[in-house]
Amino acid sequence: MPAWSARRYLFVLGHMRSYSSLLCHILGSHPQIDGYCETHVKYRTRLDLLRLRSRVVKLTGEPLSGRYVLEKMLHNYAFAPSILHSPRTFAIVLVRRPIPAVQSIVNMGLHNGAVAWHSDLDAVVRYYEDRLATLVRLADELRGRVMFMEAETLLSRTGDVLQGIGGLLDLNEPLRSDYRRFAHTGEGGFGDPSEAITTGRVSNTARELRTPVTIPASLSVRLEMAYAACSASLRDRCEALAVQVGHAGSGLAARANSRSS
């Protein structure tokens, strides 16, 4: 096991229904990455990284053994600058197109109604807009140790995306499109509560919405504008994953090390 001081922290920063559970299960199945779900830690100081380690051990039932400790964050929790600016902190930002993302959140609220506002269209639109603005701010704070990916590419270009992520993180073996089931896979509060996540593999088969969700034109325009602005800003601030596809060996982690040395 690497020394505590050498361990890195990998944050998957997205929004609800952005395929973040799928990505985290793939990442967490790699031997160099520990963790697979949200721990709901609020990162006010560096001491909270100890809480992350402890929760990952509890949620996986396994000791930490990898190079990275993984956390997924979908909400605007506290995130201390001392953590964001650390050369041992890395992130993947993923954003799904607004209309299907919002429709999926509302459907989740209607059929897994643990949180009342998830089925409130206006509240979900505000959440999506606020979260995208926060993702841009976090990308600024991470200062080059962050990559951006369109969420849909995880399904449509799975092999290329996983090869790109593996190269950027300098992983010692490829990421795979099949993945482990963990202790809380498919449970609400730990990620995707649907049956899709329990299959153990990536599938790009289209799934019909359970309940049609109509989004008024005025809200659609707002959402598309927020998405376009966020995507453009993230492309300016983040590692261009698409450029790196197929070019492992000059990874994000290695370049961060060279800049800090």
Describe this structure in words.
There is one protein chain. The protein is an alpha/beta fold and 261 residues long. 43% of the residues lie in helices and 11% in strands. It contains 10 helices and 6 strands. Strands 2-3-1-4-5-6 form a 6-stranded parallel sheet, sandwiched between helices. Helix 2 (48-60) links the parallel strand 2 (33-34) and strand 3 (68-73). Helix 4 packs across helix 5 and helix 5 (121-142) runs parallel beside helix 8. The radius of gyration is 18 Å and the shape is globular. Mean pLDDT is 88; it is low at 242-250.
Kindly provide the radius of gyration, computed on alpha-carbon positions and rounded to a whole number of angstroms. 18 Å
* Number of H- or I-type helical stretches: 10
Which structural class fits the helix and strand makeup?
Answer: alpha/beta
| Morphology | globular
Order of helices and strands: EHEHEHEHHEHHHEHH
Largest sheet: 6 strands, parallel
Distance between the termini: 23 Å
Give the mean pLDDT: 88
Low-pLDDT runs of 5+ residues are 242-250
The oligomerization state is single chain
Q: Beta fraction of the residues?
A: 5-15%
Strand order of the largest sheet: 2-3-1-4-5-6
How many strand segments? Answer: 6
Estimated helix fraction: 40-55%
